[in-house]
Amino acid sequence: MAAIFTCCLGCCGDGGPGHAPLKEMPTVQLDTHHMGTDVVIVKSGRRICGTGGCLANAPLHQNKSYFEFKIQSTGVWGIGVATQKVNLNQVPLGRDSHSLVLRHDGSIYHNNEEKNRLPANSLPQEGDIVGMTYDHVELNLYLNGKNMHCPASGIRGTVFPIVYVDDSAIIDCQFSDFYHTPPEGFEKILFEQQIF
């Protein structure tokens, strides 16, 4: 028995030669290397203010992703998905093929075309939580946990969550520890190494 205990301490307990420490997984947050020139990112990469857009630091590789945005202060804003080719200094987004976004007025734009629209009585207000699911085909929206039944599609390639602000808007991003339970089959964004 003592030999087993000694072996465990010798192999695992002292962190000596042959010990490989576990690498901490990165946190999904807004990426300060992929943001507009007049954007300010605070709250550990979770809050955006200023003018322009910012991508998250993790692409949506998995089949079914879920993430949320909280409207802290209204103004001009947009949230959705985009490729790294998107112009992060251009507001509003959704004008080209590189972004698919819900705008503050309830319209969902991609390639300068309105793809869908939230019901008139369901426009996000200050304090509201907008959840998004993405399955590599459709982007679906949830307002305070309720499915808005207004899917949008059309974007191609590797996409990232995106948020843009202007006119005093402040948006918080929630990539884990959600306010609302993700729809069945959807989960938080995983870094590629977490998937395999």
TrEMBL record:
Residues 1-184 form the B30.2/SPRY domain. It holds the Pfam family SPRY. It comes from the Eukaryota. InterPro entries: B30.2/SPRY, B30.2/SPRY_sf, ConA-like_dom_sf, SPRY_dom, SPRYD7. This is SPRY domain-containing protein 7. It comes from Cirrhinus molitorella (mud carp).
